[in-house]
């Protein structure tokens, strides 16, 4: 989890102008096999990663705000608590690994964009 927070923090510190990410795709920087990923640009990933970080830091909503599916899950959870715990923790780590890669990809692409902008400014100043 620390890797995820570190990657998102680095992304937040690096990306000073998030609007530069609008309309920019990952362009092979990341495995985009998950559904719908081709449709998102880096700005959407940037905003998503920041909002997920807030949820992870702040915790879940109180139970009264969650859907009724929670009570249905609780009935089945008593059967194998250790198994459910292992399943959910491993799923969480898989998701955090994917999010960490996305944050690193956004940071890398932003640095690439800024390098191109700085290179163009140097050529114009001569």
UniProtKB/TrEMBL annotation:
Gene3D superfamilies named in the record: 6.10.140.1610
For this UniProt record, the keywords arranged alphabetically read as follows: Cytoplasm, Nucleus
Q: Which GO terms describe its biological process?
A: regulation of lipid biosynthetic process
- Write down a Pfam family by its short name: Spot_14
Can you supply one Gene Ontology CC term for this chain's record?
Answer: nucleus
- Output the superkingdom of the source species: Eukaryota
Task: Give the UniProt subcellular location, in the record's own words.
Answer: Cytoplasm; Nucleus
Q: Which family does it belong to?
A: Belongs to the SPOT14 family.
Q: What is this protein called?
A: Thyroid hormone responsive
* The organism of origin for this protein: Anolis carolinensis (Green anole)
């Amino acid at each position: 989890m620390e890797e995820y927070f570190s990657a998102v923090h680095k992304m937040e510190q690096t990306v000073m102008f998030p609007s530069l990410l609008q309309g920019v795709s990952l362009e092979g920087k990341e495995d985009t096999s998950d559904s719908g990923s081709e449709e998102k640009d880096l700005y959407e990933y940037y905003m998503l990663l920041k909002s997920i970080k807030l949820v992870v830091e702040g915790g879940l909503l109180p139970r009264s705000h969650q859907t009724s599916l929670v009570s249905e899950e609780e009935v089945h959870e008593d059967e194998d608590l250790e198994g459910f715990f292992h399943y959910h923790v491993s799923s969480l780590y898989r998701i955090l690994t994917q999010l960490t890669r996305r944050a690193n990809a956004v940071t890398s692409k932003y640095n690439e964009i800024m390098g191109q902008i700085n290179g163009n400014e140097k050529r114009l100043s001569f």
